[in-house]
Each structure stands twice: as C-alpha cells, then as structure tokens.
Predict the 3D structure of the following.
Amino acid sequence: MRASRSRPLFIMAILGSLSLLLGSCSATPAPSIDSAPAPAAKVPAGLEKFYSQELDWAPCGGALQCTEIEVPMDYAKPEGETMTLALNKRPGGKKTIGSLLVNPGGPGASGLEIVADAVPTMFGQKLQRGYDVIGFDPRGVGSSTPVKCQTPTEQDASREEQFDPSTDAGLADMRKASAAYAKQCAERTGESLGFVDTVSAARDMDVMRAALGDEQLNYLGYSYGTSLGAHYAELFPSNVGKLVLDGALDPTLGDDEITLGQAVGFENEIRSYMQDCLESADCPFTGTLDEALTQLHDLFDSVKATPMVGSDGRKVPIIDFVNGFIIPLYDNSTWPMLTEGLRNAIAGNVDDILYFADLNAGRETDGSYSGNGAAAFTAINCLDYPVDADIPTMRAGAKTLTEKAPTIGEYLAYGAVGCQDWEFPATGKPGELTAKGAAPIMVIGTTGDPATPHAWSQSLAKQLESASLVTFEGHGHTAYGRSNGCISNAVESYFLDGTVPADGLTC
C-alpha cells in the first residue's frame, strides 16, 4: 500500500490560517502577455451541443453559486452516455477579467471545497476581485458522476486491515483484498469507471471554458492539478490564457518513478522535520539526528507489530499510522502538531495521529466520509499509469524504496497491486508535454516539496515550450497561498496584469 500521490490543498487550509511572510526574490524584468483580444476558439466537431450549454447558476451558501454541466462520457462517442460535472463560483468584483478555474490536486480532491473553504484565505483580495473563481469536481470525483466503491463501514474496516507484503502469504492477502475492492468499484460505479482519466478531464475543462463564455482558459492547478493543466495545454494550446501550475508532476515519469521520487522527497522532509524537532523544547526524540531517526523507526516497528487503538475503539495499523504521520509533513507550519501527536503516540495515545489519518481519508467525526477521495484516487491513477504487478518486479521495487528511503519507503511499496485486477486497462502513458503554440505558462516548484519534488517542476517547465519556472525556497507542498509575498506577487501580477515572471525567478 502507499500514501496518496498528492494531498488536496484545502486540507492545509482547514488545519489553520497560514500567514504570508514577506520574501525576497530576484529576477530580470519580465515581459507581459499580449492583451489583444483572442480569436474565437474552435468547437471540436460533434461536440457543439456540449460547448453551447448555458449555465444556470443558483445560490448555494454565502456568496457561492452552483451549477452543473454535461460532458460526454466517452469523447470518441459524443452521441452516447454523458456525465454530470458540478461547478461552483465565487463571484469577483463588478468588473472581472473572466473566469479562473482552480483544481487542488489529488487526484480525487474536490475543487468545490477549495473554492468554498480555502480561496478566501489563500488568494489575494485583488485576485479574488479580478476573477470569478470557479471550482469544479473533475469527472469521477465528489459530486461529478462519482466513483463509488465502499460504504463508510466498509471503508473503516479496510483501514483497519494490515498486510505484510514482504511475505508471500501477506502479499497474497493484499492482492485478494485489492481484487475485492476493484470488484466493488466496478459493480457500484458502472461504465463511467473506465472514463475518469486525466485526458478526458482535461477535455472537460475546455467545455467548461466555452460554457463560461471565455475565449481562453485561465487556470490555477496544484499538484495533480498541474497534470490536468499541462494536458489541457497539450490538447488546446491556442485556448490557453493564463495557466499557473504549482507543484508539478513530471509527465514523463511512470508509476514506479513517481513513487520513488515521492519516497525520497518525504525521506528528505522527515530528516528536516526531525532536525527541527530536536531543536525544539518539547521534542520526544533525543540525541543526534540519526539517533532520533532510529527512535522513530522503532516507533513504526512497534505499531507494525501491535496496532494501536484510538479512544473510540478503532484500530490503527501501521499504514493508517503512517498516513497520519505524513499529512503534517505537507506544510512545515504544522510540524509542531506532528510533534505533539508523536509525543502522545509514544505515551500510548494515538488520537492525534488518527485525526490526521482521518483527515487524509476524508472521515468526519460522525463516521461518515466526505467526498470519495480514496476511490477516485485509485480509479484515476489506474487509468493514467500502466503498472507492472509482477511479484519479482514489485519485490525489487520494494527493496529499492527501502534503500533510498529507509523511514518511509517500505510503506509506499507494492502500489501496483491496487490496479492489477482493475476492470479497465490503463489508457494513459508517460510522455513529454510541450504545448507548442500556447501562451506563456507559469510553473512553480518548491525546493523542499516532499510530494512533488522540485525536479519535477523543473522538468515540466523545460518540456512546455512557453513555460517560465518560479522557485520557492522553502518546505512544504506547493507554494501559492502558503509561502511568501514574492510568490504571491508573481502569481497575482501574472493573472491580473499579464506580467510573465522571468524564467528562473527565485523567491
């Protein structure tokens, strides 16, 4: 089993408001995007009825408005079944530039939630006034013809399962459980399960653009959302307006390479966190950094041998414990919360770690699950990435992961098992995305990003012909809305004034 490929940004907003610190940045003067009106975008043949939809917005809480839009289930057969996508809008000022679509990542994270809950604190006021900010749940996610796999009771039970895939018997049990899960997803979701891939979701964004009345797409994508944005630019380069891709996935990497990159990224961030912890007054670990890491490994080994139990009676096996441990590593402002959780866990109280694991899974305090993040994550990735579930190959991969990331690697291994019995074969494959002819695109990478390592943003910026790379020197996953004024100024000047940041800008 493995942790989620990338976490929704709104989780970090829920944990607490994040202060924007003033930061320094250096670069040469940047050009501006030509403000001349764009030519009318072409409507793909056969899709006229989808592109000409009129959106019926209705109030849905506070300043928000909501609507739905229809898209083809299979773009190769637009006359066939359709899927319904949910959108919401946070209206801008009296005079806006247009619409700004936002995706928080995942895959499986809800764009409706980030616009409803996080945008007011993450986005600058001028940006909020300058655009109608649009959230959407991509196909298969949340309120958009969702992937359906398990009931809340079944999901609770699955999280309490523990396998040891390093043994033949443990791996066989994991494969059996994964096959049963794949069957549940296929039976409860139906035909749409085979069409929740990223390329189809990117095509949906062009239908949204047209229905919103925009000649070009303005878009901010975080983490997995960068994959959506980059695929959109590849498919519709002439329809690209202003795109910010923050915390990029590298489209040339396969599933195993992504997992290894994340394992190393989290390992590096764990070392940074542990050093910071040792320098604090309340760290539960002692000695040198290596000695403290050994103590952390001992804690993990203890939970692996004997799962902990929360105050509500739920069992917390090692995978759920690790998922809870990982979440605060996505933002260094939450490191003190991780320290408190680990200190309590060492004392026998796992509730803080279970809280983070529940946050990761979308479990509410009443036992329900908000959204369908876990199901959508698996469904989308199984379509996007071909995997090799050959046992010797997986065992070799597990060995490499453990060697490269001794703290976290073994818990990210054997991910291919999750897709081995998936009813629908993968349709995606790794490859460069160049978006030839697209308007200038802004890519942001964070040097200490554990989930989408900085090298991935560097790679995507090199692939996209019109991209400029902006680097935030700091810790945590993604940058805009949680980093510093330099990043905020670069993003907002780009969206509001068309000022393209110089390639190589460092904040």
Observations:
- The longest strand covers residues 82-90.
